[in-house]
Amino acid sequence: MNSVPNFHTHTGYCDGKGAAETYVLSAIAKNQSAIGFSGHAPVPFESWWNMKEDDFDKYLYEISALKTKYGKEIEIYKAVEADYIQGLVSPADFSQLNLDYVIGSIHYLFPSAAEKPWDFVISPKIFEQGLTEYYQNDITKLVKHYYKASCEMIEDGGFEIIGHCDQIGKFNFDNKYFSPLAAFHTQAIDEMLELIAQKNIIVEINTRGKLKNNSEEFYPTLNILKKCKRMNINIILSADAHTPQETDSFLYEAATVAKNAGYQELMIFKNTTFEQVGIENFC
Ligand SMILES: [Zn+2]
Ligand SMILES: [Zn+2]
Fold first, then answer.
1. pLDDT, tens digit (0-9, with 9 covering 90-100), for 55-88
2. Which ligand minimizes its atom distance to the CA of 104?
3. Which residues contact 183 (CB under 8 A, 6 or more apart)?
4. Ligand 2 centroid distance, CA of 36 (Å)
C-alpha cells in the first residue's frame, strides 16, 4: 500500500486550525506522498471562513516557501477552493494566479429574496430557515437552484476539481427533506454530470461529511459515483482536512468505495498536471 496523497486542505488562513507547516509535518509523518493546500478563496463580502483578501498574498507566498523547504520530503501543491456565486465570484477569477489547480465548490446560494449570499451548509438551523424564507419550504426549488448554480459554475470554468458536488444533501439525514431517488433530484444530478463529463472536470470523493459524523456516505454518494464511472468521469480523493491530524482522514476507505463503484484508477496531481494511477495503490 502506497501512502495516500491529499489534495484538499484548509489551514488557519481560512477555517482550518493551525499553520500550513504543521499540516506538512503531519503529512510527512504519515508518509503521505503529497499534500495540496486549498484555502477557501476570498469572496467580495463579509465571511468568517473565507481567506481575507489582505492575507491572500501571504498564503500564496507561504505555500511556495514550504514547497522549497520540504520539497525533497513531500510534494506540496498550491491551490484554492473557490466559490461560485453568479455575478459575484467564480473559480475562473483565480485561474490566472499561477496555482497548481483550483477546486470549484458551491457553499453559498444567492436566492432572489436574500439580501446577501446564503451559506446553506453552515448549520441545519440556517438551512431550515433559508428553505422556509427563500424557497417557501419547497425543497425541489432549493435542490434545483443548487444544481443550476453548479452547472453555471462548470460552464464558467477555471477549475479542475469540483468539490463535494452533492453537498446540498448535507442535512438530508434519513431522507428528511427528499428521496435521493426522486426524479427532480436524479435529473438535476444527471444534467450536472453530463456537463462535468463534457468539460473533463474531476469529481472528488470528499470524506469530510463522514468525519464530521453528519453523513453516512462520502460526497458524492455511491449511487452518484457509479453514474460517474459509467460516464467515464475521473475522480480524486479529498480529506478536506481542517486540522493537521486530518490530512489522511478516511482516504483509504474512500478508495475502497471508489473500487466498489467500479473504478480501477484515480487521479492524482503530479508535478504540473493530473494523471491516473491504479486504485490498488490505495486500498
Ligand atoms: Zn468545501
Ligand atoms: Zn474544503
1. 999 999 999 999 999 999 999 999 999 999 999 9
2. 1
3. none
4. 11
The C-alpha cell at 109 is 446560494
The region that residue 174 occupies, defined by phi over 0 for left and psi between -120 and 50 for alpha, beta otherwise, is left
CA distance 236 to 206: 9
Q: Are 90 and 82 in contact (CB under 8 A)?
A: yes
> Which residues are CB-neighbours of 94 under 8 A, at least 6 positions away?
41, 80, 82, 102, 158
Give the number of whichever ligand sits closest to the CA of residue 16: 2
Quote the pLDDT of residue 156.
Answer: 97
How far is the centre of ligand 1, averaged over its atoms, from the C-alpha of 184 (Å)?
A: 24
Block residue for cell numbers 470523493: 205
Q: 81 is written with which cell numbers?
A: 477552493
The CATH number assigned to the domain with range 20-281 reads 3.20.20.140
Q: Nearest Cα to 8, choosing from 196, 197, 162?
A: 162
Domain boundaries, the chain: 20-281
